[in-house]
Amino acid sequence: MMHIAIVALVASTLTQVKDGPSAVCEDKASCGGFLGTPCKSRSDVCIDDPSDDCNPLKGGADCMGCCVFDQCMVTKCSAGFTCQLNTLGQAECVKDEKEASADVAAVDVCEDKASCGGFLGTPCKSRSDVCIDDPSDDCNPLKGGADCMGCCVFDQCMVTKCSAGFTCQLNTLGQAECVKDEKESSADVAAVDVCEDKASCGGFLGTPCKSRSDVCIDDPSDDCNPLKGGADCMGCCVFDQCMVTKCSAGFTCQLNTLGQADCVKDEKESSADVAAVDVCEDKASCGGFLGTPCKSRSDVCIDDPSDDCNPLEGGADCMGCCVFNQCLAAKCSAGFTCQLNTLGQAECVKDEREEKQASALAVVDVCEDKASCGGFLGTPCKSRSDVCIDDPSDDCNPLKGGADCMGCCVFDQCMVTKCSAGFTCQLNTLGQAECVKDEKEASADVAAVDVCEDKASCGGFLGTPCKSRSDVCIDDPSDDCNPLKGGADCMGCCVFDQCMVTKCSAGFTCQLNTLGQAECVKDEKESSADVAAVDVCEDKASCGGFLGTPCKSRSDVCIDDPSDDCNPLEGGADCMGCCVFNQCLAAKCSAGFKCQLNTLGQAECVKDEREEKQASALAVVDVCEDKASCGGFLGTPCKSRSDVCIDDPSDDCNPLKGGADCMGCCVFDQCMVTKCSAGFTCQLNTLGQAECVKDEKESSADVAAVDVCKDKASCGGFLGTPCKSRSDVCIDDPSDDCNPLKGGADCMGCCVFDQCMVTKCSAGFTCQLNTLGQAECVKDEKEASADVEALEVCKGKASCGGILGEFCESKSDVCIDNPSDDCNPLKGGADCMGCCVFNQCMVTKCSAGFKCVLSTMGQAECVKDRPECCLAVPSCPRGFSQTKACNEKELIAGDCVEVSLCCSTILCRSNVQ
Length: 913
Hints:
This protein has about 900 residues and is an alpha+beta fold. The longest helix has 23 residues, at about 1-25. It is globular.
C-alpha cells in the first residue's frame, strides 16, 4: 500500500513539473518579442514564456513573454533580502548581494572625494555632483544625526532613465537605483476623477481651452493615451499650475497626467554638463582680460563652460571660444526670439517684448463692460467680492503720480487663489491674481528664532496659562513642535496680545501670526454674511424708519435691514429695519467679553473695553520689568535702533506731571510695524503699546494752510519761477485749488526757509517738508529697501580696495564699499573690500545748490551742497588719496581744516593715474 502511495506522489510531482511551465503563460497577454510589446497594466510585469524554446538566460534574443501580476508589489522581504520573480513569475526572497557588498564598499565610497555638508552646509562645486552622507562615519542623518559631513559624487540619476512607474534615486553609496514611484501608484486612483466637471478640449477638432490660464491635459480615465500611440484623444481643461510654480535651478516645471505641477530634472541642462567639456575643443580663443574678438563676422564669442570662470556667477575676464552664430540661420516662430545657450546652440525663447505688446492689447479690454469706481468721488464697488483696479486703458496712472484716476470693479481673484508657502496673492494691473514672494514671511524665518527669547513659557502638556490677562500664548516657532502640522502639547511663550490695540478695517479681523504680531486678515465669516444678508429680514416685522416704529415683543430688538441701500453705519438716516429675537438674552460670554448683535442679528461675544482698561492698569506694574534702563539725569539712550525709551510707569516720577530726569526703559517701537488710517498717527501709550490717534497737526493744518504763503515771495507756476535765496525752497500754496499731488499742473507756490537744512533726523529717517513747509522726519523707505538690495550690489563686480588697496581698471569706475559684508569704513572698518561700479556722477547733472554723491549702493544722488559738522571723516582705502571737500577746503591728515565749513562726504581717487 505504501509502495502505491509513493508511486502516486512521484507521478503527481512529475505531472506538476511537466505541466507547470506550459501553464504559466496560458491565457496571459503576450509581451516582449521583436517589437518589445509592453504590458497594458502598470501592475503587471513581462516574464519569459518558459514553455517555448527561446530562453534569454541562455542567449535567446527577442523572446516572447507574457504579462503576469508583479507579486513583488505585495511581497515584503526581511532585512538583507530582496524580492525577485522566478521563471514562473512567482515572488521569491533572495539574499541581497548588493547590500552585503555595500557594507564593504561603504568604507571607500568617500575616499578622495571633496567634502560637503556639515555644520556649514558646504555645497559641491560642480553642478553635476550631489552631496551624499559619508557612510564610513558614525553620523547618520537617517538615524537622527545632525550636521553630518558628506562627500561630493557624480549624480548618476542625471544619466539614468527609469521605466514608467519608477523614479531614480541615489542609494547610500551614491549609486543610481530605479525605485517604485509611490506618487504615480496613488495617481492611478486619482486619475478617475481628474477630469470630472471640467470643460472638454482636444479630440478630433482640437478644441482649445477658453481661459488663457488653463491647459489641455489628456483624460486619464479613458482608453485613449497619446503617450501610447492614441490619436485625437479627448482631454479636459485644468488650471496651468506651472504658472505659479517656481522650480529650483536645474529643474523645470511640467504637468503630470493628473494636471499637477511637478519639478523635474531639466534633461537639457543635465546633458549640457556633459557636452560642456567639449564645446570649446579645437575652437579659437576669445574674450579674456584683453577682450580678444572673433576673426570671422559670422562667429560669436561664448564663455568656455569647461573652466571655473563663469561670467553669470561673477567671473570677470573669462576666456571664451569662437563658435558659428547659429541664430544667423535659425528661424523662430512668432512670439519667440533666437538666443544662444551656454553651449553656443541656437534656442527659440519667448520674446518678452512681444509679450509686452500682447499684454498691451489686453489692457484695452480689461475694464470693458465693468462698473466704474474710484475717481474724484472715490466711488466704491457695490459687491464686496469685487475690488477696484485702475483702468489701464486711460492716461491716468496712480503708479506714475496720477490722482483721482477712474477704475473699474473686477472680481477679487485672490479670494479663490491659494499660493504656495512663502508666497502671497496680489492682483496685477489687469486684475489677474499672481503669487509673489512674501517678503514678510522670508524675514519672519529669521525673526522666528528670537520671538520667544526671554518670554514666559506657556502651553505644553500641563497647558500652563499666561499670568497677565493682556498676554496670549503663541507657539514657540524655534522648536520642532508645530501644532499646525500635527504637533501635540507644544510649548509656547506669552506675548502681549497686539490685537487688543489693533483696529482693522471693515471686512477684516485681527489675528496674531506665528511671531505674535497683529495682522488684519479677511473676515471669512463676514464674506459669507453677504449671502445671508439677503434673507435676514425676510418674513420679519418692520421697525425703525422715519416713524421709528418699535418692535411689539419685548424680547425682540430692531436691527437694520442689510439687504437695502440705507446703512446707519455709513450715514444713512431713518433706515427701515426688522424685528429679530435678541439672542443676547440667551447668550453668556466669558469674563472680559460682552454680548452684542452683529448686522445679521446674531449674538457675538466681543472684548469688553471697560474691563480691558482695568487690565491695562494692572499691566503698568510690569511694563519695564526685565527691560534695559534709559533716560534719567544722563539721558541714557537705547542700544537697539528699533527700541524707544518710555517712562517707567511703576515709579513716582512722571514727565507728564512735571517730573524731570525720570528713568525709563527700552521697549520695541510698535509704531514701526503699525499703519494707521488717513488722518490718524501712531503713538505709544504709557505701556509702550502702539495706538492710532487723531492727527491734531493735520486738523490744525487746515487752518494754518490759509496763511502759510501770506507775505511770501511767489515761485513755480507756468514759468517755473525759482526762489531768490539758496536757503529757501518752493512749496505749493495750500490755500488755492491747484494741488500738484492731485494732478494739478503749473501750480503757483511760495518761497519758505528750508527747515531741513537745520533739522537732523535719526538713523533710518529722512527729512522732508510737509504741505505747510515744516520739517518732518519720516521713515526712509529707500534705506529699508536698500538693505535687501545691498546683498546684490557687488555681485558680478570686480573687487577693489582691501589691504592691498586694489584699484579699478577703468577710469570711469569708482570703488565703493561692499555693503553685504561686515566691514564698514563709515563705522571704523579698516582695509574693507569693495567693488568697482560705474561712476554715475559722471553723467549726472544736479540743480544749482546741489551736488552729486554716490550712495552706499553706488547710485548717483543729488544732495544739498551745504556745510555740516564734520565730527569724523572716514579714511580712503589704501592706494587712494582724499580729494578736496566741498567749499574747496582741503582735508589735512584726515581732519577738517574748518569744522564749521567742512563736508562729511569726501571723494577718493586712485593714486595710480
